[in-house]
Amino acid sequence: AFEGLAEKLSNSFKKLKSKGKLSDADVKEAMREVRLALLEADVNYKVAKEFTNKVTERAVGSEVMESLTPGQMVVKIVNEELTGLMGGSEERLKMPAHPPAVIMMCGLQGAGKTTHAAKLAYQLKSQGHRPLLVAGDIYRPAAIKQLQVVAEKAGAPVFEKGTQDPVITAREAVKHARDYGNDYVIIDTAGRLQIDEPLMEELRRIKAEVEPTDILLVVDAMTGQEAVNVAKTFDELLDITGVILTKLDGDTRGGAALSVKAVTGKPIKFAGTGEKLSDLEVFHPDRMASRILGMGDVLSLIEDAQLKLDEKAAAKTAERLMNNKLDLNDMLEQFNQVRKMGPIKGILSKLPGIGNKVDDMEIDDRVLDRNAAIILSMTKYERSHPDVLDASRKRRIAAGCGMKVEDVNRLLNQFKQTQKLMKQFGGKGKRRRMPMNLP
Ligand code: GDP
Ligand code: MG
């Protein structure tokens, strides 16, 4: 999920970050692109518009524009607003005043209610709880059987009363849980293809009967905006306490994840990411936001690398490295490869976990160019046999590239260090002692 959105955002931000100073027009243009990307990811129209307006408002005409890295600052604001859009921080299940906690699952047919009732039971069990599953879908003949099968995998008991009125079954299940020490009751309910009055009436009656601690609406992320409409209707009729967004492992464009909270005011508490019982995650808005933003950057980094790195040259260097044959030609090749990918800060900032921390780093791209120039001033033979370089040759080389002899020596020392390191790691399986400087 989210790849398309992530890539589009990443492209817009690349443009922003490449600019030293930003004008109001630059920000507005970027936000226009962000809005389009959000709409294409199936984010609700109003949500997308309000989102970009908010980011623009915070960015334009403030100290952001005067900062040293305005592009990065705008991305930071987007990250914060994206997190806020999805609810800020994660929301867990509510704690009841008296156990058991009663969780009522609801939603349309096929959304994943039964699967996620079992996933929840499985997760609760792993945390040391004693969940009881309740079969409240009595209309589809195979529904009870399906719940029993997944419940057995989860290692949780099922309370079922055949086709008895699910309202009564729910009441009896809660009493059963009290008597047998189950601290969570998870009620699976029936769904329909469409929201209709008899379904809602039944859910309202179950709600009134057992007063659930949590009413979790299960929605299928693949249905995009429709998922959000469904959430809105269910919330108006049942006052849900949260959402489980399922099938996020699929090919969804992610719009539902971004709009549900904004449209309904109710948080996404869990995300379903597969058909297995363990494929249930607590929904973390901040992680989701960094995933959408960070992933885009990583994707574009990989693309860059694939475009620009010459694979054959890299393989050759690796082989020479294994055989302890590294020379200055290889070093030159490395400099060139890195140079092709653009400014080093740009490369680093795309790596997960580094991001805008590079703003505080002192990195001078010219070092690479200077070192490359020194090597280029040597003859081919000298590059593969740097030991032959004597004082007069070093002076000539320094003069040739407009640098000092110290610079040449520094590069040669750096190379020797690298070579030494390679020797220690190399030797193909032979164990070597680290050299020790004992007095
Ligand atoms: P219900 O009608 O709401 O009870 O839906 P089910 O729990 O029966 O699920 C319907 C289908 O969706 C089943 O085939 C599930 O295996 C599948 N499913 C449920 N959740 C997920 C999920 O998070 N990811 C994927 N890939 N499939 C899911
Ligand atoms: Mg079901």
TrEMBL record:
Catalysed reaction equations from the record: GTP + H2O = GDP + phosphate + H(+)
Similarity section: Belongs to the GTP-binding SRP family. SRP54 subfamily.
Record-listed E.C. numbers: 3.6.5.4
Annotated function: Involved in targeting and insertion of nascent membrane proteins into the cytoplasmic membrane. Binds to the hydrophobic signal sequence of the ribosome-nascent chain (RNC) as it emerges from the ribosomes. The SRP-RNC complex is then targeted to the cytoplasmic membrane where it interacts with the SRP receptor FtsY.
Positions of the SRP54-type proteins GTP-binding domain: 267-280
Keywords tagged on the record: Cytoplasm, GTP-binding, Hydrolase, Nucleotide-binding, Ribonucleoprotein, RNA-binding, Signal recognition particle
EC category: hydrolase
UniProt xrefs under CDD domains: SRP_G
PROSITE patterns assigned to the protein according to its UniProt record, in alphabetical order: SRP54
Alphabetical list of Gene3D superfamilies matching this protein: P-loop containing nucleotide triphosphate hydrolases, Signal recognition particle SRP54, nucleotide-binding domain, Signal recognition particle, SRP54 subunit, M-domain
Domain observations: Composed of three domains: the N-terminal N domain, which is responsible for interactions with the ribosome, the central G domain, which binds GTP, and the C-terminal M domain, which binds the RNA and the signal sequence of the RNC.
InterPro entries in UniProt: AAA+_ATPase, P-loop_NTPase, Signal_recog_part_SRP54_M_sf, Signal_recog_particl_SRP54_hlx, Signal_recog_particle_SRP54_M, SRP, SRP54, SRP54_GTPase_dom
Compartments, record wording: Cytoplasm
Binding positions for GTP per the UniProt entry: 107-114, 188-192, 246-249
Xref: Pfam families: SRP54 (PF00448), SRP54_N (PF02881), SRP_SPB (PF02978)
Quaternary assembly: Part of the signal recognition particle protein translocation system, which is composed of SRP and FtsY.
Protein name: Signal recognition particle protein
